[in-house]
């Protein structure tokens, strides 16, 4: 048995044992533990959990590879995701926390006083989270397939089973603390290789500073090979596609149910804001490293693999060729691997980099554990979002309001198990690359939840008819555009399927506003509740005035 296999397997086994142990120790015993971790998570730890929830397999495995393949155009993913996170932290999260519900569909149902709106939101949560989870399952399959040297599809099934066990044990309480541990593992695994590569290539341990030097050298290499400059913008799409993708990711980020619900696990609005601040720091460590990762990996491939004899390629290439994620073809028959004869999937760039840069067996093992942590942490959050919609928003709020906590917990756990296994089966033949699948999920969130939440928090005139029409129109437009662009070649201004959210969001906002204005306004109570969201928790808006809370009945004084 190879030493590399033993080391990598030991890393993954040890970390997975840690996650299961934490989930068992923090097993949910009541409904509030299962849905919102008892609302007692400290801000700094919630920030770490948000970071782990956020940094999915798409971020960990696919982001640097996407930037490497697309060059400048790949930066749209980084700018969109980061911008959307700021939008969520400062525009929506504290207000949603003050409203005090368990789930996003529950907020929509109560804010708009409509069971139909809550059910549509619950179904949309399931569709979005399920689409997103396919990418995570696929990512876990790549990691397990490479580690065990088996087909990645078998690795996907193994990953789905592992996620089902881990996520169903602790509910949100268990998931929160396992995500804290997963953040530590994944960020350590992500930073060590890029720091080592920076030292190898530039003698500078700070990749965020040194990779500009490598970019200058790549300009020369690109010119020698006669290929497009790595930094030239819009070589893989129009500028409209770049902007549409960025907007879709930004608005989608602010509407993702599994991320928003993390802000429900803290005690106050202030803690929600601090959670966002901490999360921004933790997420920034990875996102600022991805462009350096991409540049270093591309430079090493161009200088140490391309133009080498095909029968003398590094040993690591064989393992990745076996997974089907690396394609090598001697198209001109000269026995030399040209740069254009090398096709590397963007989904394996980060995973293969420790081997490409010859960083040693422990770094490779740590990278495998980090990738698994990223896939598991986000998949756990997504399965939790699906489970909450099924067991709380649909089962408890609509079918059996008298259900006991134990009955609700059982429905929630079985929902996680079934959703994990179904997502794993669909991920056996994913309809696109990880980042592409994730972009679809963001487009659906952007066109359904973002307009509903934005107007729900900041426009008291928005009503039930408006939000129902808006969500249905937004989802229809987005799904229609994705299918038309992906399978029919239809585009507007060169905007492809990953930018579909810009059309769906615009349609949903316009529909919500027009229908709301054309129909009866919400009740005075609901309009005052919306107005109240703009004030700190120590203040209450009622009867046209702001009241201070002195710890007794609200509102006691002006």
TrEMBL record:
Membrane topology: Multi-pass membrane protein
Superkingdom as given in the UniProt entry: Bacteria
Gene Ontology molecular functions: transmembrane transporter activity
Family matches, as Pfam families: SSF
Cellular component aspect of the GO annotation: plasma membrane
Keywords: Membrane, Transmembrane, Transmembrane helix, Transport
PANTHER family, A to Z: NA(+):SOLUTE SYMPORTER (SSF FAMILY) (PTHR48086:SF5), SODIUM/PROLINE SYMPORTER-RELATED (PTHR48086)
Entry's family note: Belongs to the sodium:solute symporter (SSF) (TC 2.A.21) family.
UniProt protein name: Cation acetate symporter
Species per Swiss-Prot/TrEMBL record: Paenisporosarcina antarctica
Taxonomic path: Bacteria, Bacillati, Bacillota, Bacilli, Bacillales
């Amino acid at each position: 048995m190879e030493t590399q296999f033993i080391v990598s397997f030991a890393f993954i086994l040890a970390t997975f044992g840690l996650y299961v142990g934490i989930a068992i120790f923090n097993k949910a015993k009541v409904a509030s533990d299962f849905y919102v971790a008892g609302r007692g998570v400290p801000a700094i730890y919630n920030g770490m959990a948000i970071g782990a929830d956020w940094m999915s397999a798409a971020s960990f495995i696919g982001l640097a590879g996407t930037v490497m393949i697309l060059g400048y155009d790949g930066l749209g993913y980084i700018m969109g995701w980061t911008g959307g996170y700021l939008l969520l932290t400062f525009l929506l999260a504290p207000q949603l926390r003050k409203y005090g519900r368990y789930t996003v569909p529950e907020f929509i149902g109560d804010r708009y006083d409509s069971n139909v709106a809550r059910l549509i939101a619950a179904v949309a949560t399931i569709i979005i989270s399920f689409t997103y989870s396919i990418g995570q399952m696929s990512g876990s399959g790549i990691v397990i397939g490479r580690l065990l040297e088996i087909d990645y599809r078998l690795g996907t099934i193994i990953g789905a089973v592992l996620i089902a066990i881990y996520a169903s044990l602790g509910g949100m309480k268990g998931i929160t603390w396992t995500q804290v541990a997963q953040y530590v593992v994944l960020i350590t695994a992500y930073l060590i290789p890029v720091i080592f590569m920076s030292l190898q290539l530039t003698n500078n341990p700070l990749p965020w500073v040194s990779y500009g030097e490598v970019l200058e050298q790549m300009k020369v290499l690109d010119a020698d090979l006669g290929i497009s400059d790595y930094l030239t913008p819009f070589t893989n799409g129009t500028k409209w596609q770049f902007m549409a993708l960025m907007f879709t990711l930004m608005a989608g980020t602010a509407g993702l149910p599994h991320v928003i619900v993390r802000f429900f696990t803290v005690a106050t609005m202030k803690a929600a804001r601090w959670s966002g601040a901490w999360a921004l720091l933790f997420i920034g460590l990875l996102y600022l490293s991805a462009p350096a990762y991409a540049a270093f990996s591309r430079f090493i491939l161009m200088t140490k693999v391309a133009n080498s004899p095909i029968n003398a390629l590094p040993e690591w290439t064989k393992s990745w060729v076996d997974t089907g994620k690396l394609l090598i073809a001697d198209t001109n028959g000269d026995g030399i691997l040209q740069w254009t004869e090398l096709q590397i999937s963007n989904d394996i760039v980060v995973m293969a980099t420790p081997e490409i840069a010859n960083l040693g067996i422990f770094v490779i093992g740590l990278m495998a554990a980090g990738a698994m942590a990223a896939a598991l942490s986000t998949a756990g959050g997504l399965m939790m979002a699906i489970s909450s919609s099924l067991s709380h928003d649909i089962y408890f709020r609509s079918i059996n309001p008298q259900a006991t906590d134990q009955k609700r917990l059982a429905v929630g756990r079985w929902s996680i198990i079934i959703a994990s296994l179904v997502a794993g089966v669909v991920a056996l033949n994913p309809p696109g690359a990880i980042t592409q699948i994730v972009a679809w999920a963001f487009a659906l969130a952007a066109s359904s939840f973002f307009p509903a939440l934005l107007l729900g928090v900041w426009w008291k005139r928005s009503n039930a008819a408006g939000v129902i029409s808006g969500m249905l129109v937004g989802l229809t437009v987005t799904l229609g555009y994705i299918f038309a662009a992906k399978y029919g070649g239809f585009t507007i201004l060169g905007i492809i399927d990953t930018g579909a959210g810009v059309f769906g969001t615009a349609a949903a906002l316009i529909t919500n506003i027009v229908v709301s204005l054309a129909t009866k306004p919400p009740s005075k109570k609901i309009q005052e509740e919306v107005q109240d969201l703009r004030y700190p928790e120590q203040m209450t808006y009622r009867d046209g005035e702001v009241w201070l809370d002195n710890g007794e009945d609200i509102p006691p004084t002006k």
